[in-house]
Automatic annotation (TrEMBL):
Record family assignment: Belongs to the cyclophilin-type PPIase family.
Known role: PPIases accelerate the folding of proteins. It catalyzes the cis-trans isomerization of proline imidic peptide bonds in oligopeptides.
Protein name from the UniProt record: Peptidyl-prolyl cis-trans isomerase
Gene Ontology molecular function terms on file: peptidyl-prolyl cis-trans isomerase activity
Organism superkingdom: Eukaryota
PANTHER family: PEPTIDYL-PROLYL CIS-TRANS ISOMERASE CYP21-3, MITOCHONDRIAL, PEPTIDYL-PROLYL CIS-TRANS ISOMERASE CYP21-4
Native organism: Arachis hypogaea
Length: 113
């Protein structure tokens, strides 16, 4: 899953917004989780309808309260904040697209009980 938008002090965005199916397993299905605060290092997805096979993953890099109505927060980065900060520092074009390919190779999701 490649990062296709990096906006410093705001958010980094990865995903398959073309609906190619590469991230089908990431889609939220069924009941939507209750959104939590948009602090730094929160994981979220768009509140838009997920009828296609596309999916966008957002990782906030700063507290962003204006995203409360736009994103569903479903987790937080608990290990690797330094990696998020490194991604935030890459060179981008005028549309915030990274000039080099950066992607997620592996991720572990854990449910806090």
């Amino acid at each position: 899953m490649l990062f296709h938008r990096v906006i410093k002090h705001y958010v980094i965005q990865a995903g398959d917004n073309q609906g190619a199916g590469a991230t089908e397993d990431w889609n939220l299905r069924g009941k939507q989780p209750t959104s939590v605060k948009h602090e730094a290092f929160m994981l979220g997805t768009s509140k838009g309808k997920h009828t296609n096979k596309g999916f966008d993953l957002f990782i906030t890099t700063a507290p962003i309260p204006d995203l409360n109505e736009k994103l569903i927060v479903f987790g937080r980065v608990v290990k690797g904040e330094d990696v998020v900060q490194e991604i935030e520092e890459v060179d981008t074009d005028e549309h915030y697209k990274p000039k080099v390919s950066i992607g997620i190779l592996d991720v572990t999701l854990k449910q806090k009980i």
